[in-house]
Amino acid sequence: MGLGMPEISRFLGINIRLYYRDPGPLHIHAEYSDYEVTVDLQSGEMTGTFPRRAKAALVEWYGMHKQDLLSFGELASQERQLDWIEPLE
Questions:
Q1: Going by C-beta distance under 8 Å and a sequence separation of 6 or more, which residues neighbour residue 49?
Q2: Residue 32 domain flag
Q3: How many CB atoms lie within 10 A of CB 22?
Q4: DSSP per residue over 20-61, as a string?
Q5: All residues at 6 or more sequence positions from 43 whose CB lies less than 8 Å from its CB, including other chains
Q6: Three-class SS of residue 64?
Q7: What are the Cα distances from residue 2, in Å, to 19, 29, 61, 89?
Q8: What is the pLDDT of residue 4?
Q9: Among 10, 71, 84, 85, fewest CB within 10 Å belongs to which?
Q10: Domain limits at 30?
Q11: Over the stretch 16-34, which tens digit does the pLDDT of each residue have?
Q12: Per-residue pLDDT tens digits for 49-60
């Protein structure tokens, strides 16, 4: 994992990444097969397309870890190491 986009979690075939130098509001990128969505960490708003079950799993995981994700904003702005967030089981 390079400094550009560390993977911060992985579950049910969904990879969650956070770019260090991504413009705009703080958000994560979630990839599932050929699908990708971004999730605004303040609002939880998703942009992009995900299959229904993968989206439901991502929404559940985001809800469980929203505070952890928001704390990554400062770390990411300083390009500091981000912790691994527990996957959804």
A1: 35, 37
A2: yes
A3: 16
A4: SS--SS-EEEEEETTEEEEEETTT--EEEE--HHHHHHHHHH
A5: none
A6: helix
A7: 10, 15, 24, 26
A8: 55
A9: 84
A10: 7-77
A11: 998 877 778 889 999 999 9
A12: 999 999 999 999
State the DSSP H helix or E strand holding residue 68, giving kind and residue range, or none if neither. Answer: helix 52-77
Tell me if 54 is assigned to some domain.
yes
- When divided into structural domains, the chain yields a total of 1
Rounded to 10 degrees, what is the CA torsion of 3, 24, 41, 79?
Answer: 20
Q: Give the residue among 20, 54, 22, 25 at the shortest CA–CA distance from 37.
A: 54
Predicted confidence at residue 56, as pLDDT, reads: 97
Which residues, at least 6 apart from 85, have a Cβ–Cβ distance to it below 8 Å?
8, 9, 16, 65, 68, 69
